[in-house]
Amino acid sequence: MYEVFARDAERASRFARGMQIFNEHPQFDIFYVTDHYDWEALGQAQFVDVGGSRGHVSLALVKRFNRLSLIVQDMERVVENLTPPEDLQERVKLIPHDFFSPQPVQGADVYYLRWILHNWADKFAMLILCAPIPALKPGAWVILQETLIPEPGEVALWKERNLRCVRKHS
């Protein structure tokens, strides 16, 4: 799927918009990110949103917490034609990055991974989790917001199939 998006800007853009629509469902409301973590306690901090799509989560955070500066990373086709709102351009950058590759942003305070790991096989999830390690400074945080997979039979079969879907990376 992601290889197709890498070759097809329109499909990548539609997928990114689709991911953004999740925030319209109560269980995925962005306030769970903005209101249920003490972002203010970070103080003046650099935040890297790894696999951050079009930056909707980062934009919500930067609008609310004026001491955060943010870098949104996603596939080149997703971020190449995006521009942060003019009033936030000094604090929000969008850069292409393959989250299987070593993290290019060195020494950030937070590396945030949201809804990335649940649909990759363990060996690829480990690659994603290990990629930021060389970039970490003492005291840095890696924050994961992820889907938890319920026990078999606890949710509708179609939901369970979607949750347990594992993608291969070549």
Radius of gyration, in angstroms, nearest whole number: 16 Å
Structural class: alpha/beta
Distinct helical segment count: 7
The share of residues in helices is 25-40%
In the CATH scheme, the class would be Alpha Beta
Tell me the β content.
Answer: 15-25%
- State the CATH topology: Rossmann fold
Number of domains: 1
Mean pLDDT: 86
Q: Considering the protein shown, what is the CATH homologous superfamily?
A: Vaccinia Virus protein VP39
Question: What spatial form do the alpha-carbon principal axes imply?
Answer: globular
- Work out the number of β strands: 5
User: How would a textbook summarize the main sheet?
Assistant: 5 strands, parallel
Strand order of the largest sheet: 3-2-1-4-5
Regions with pLDDT < 50 over 5+ consecutive residues?
Answer: 166-170
Secondary structure layout plus pairing:
Layout: H1 2-7, H2 9-21, H3 31-34, E1 45-50, H4 56-64, E2 68-74, H5 76-79, E3 92-96, E4 110-114, H6 122-130, E5 141-145, H7 157-164
Parallel strand pairs: 1-2, 1-4, 2-3, 4-5
Describe the structure.
This protein has a five-stranded parallel beta sheet. Helices cover 31% and strands 16% of the residues. Strand 2, helix 5 and strand 3 (92-96) form a beta-alpha-beta unit. With 170 residues, the chain is of the alpha/beta class.
Question: What are the main properties of this structure?
Answer:
170 residues, alpha/beta, Rossmann fold, five-stranded parallel beta sheet, 7 helices, 31% helix, disordered C terminus
In short:
The chain has 170 residues and is an alpha/beta fold. Helix content is 31%, strand content 16%.
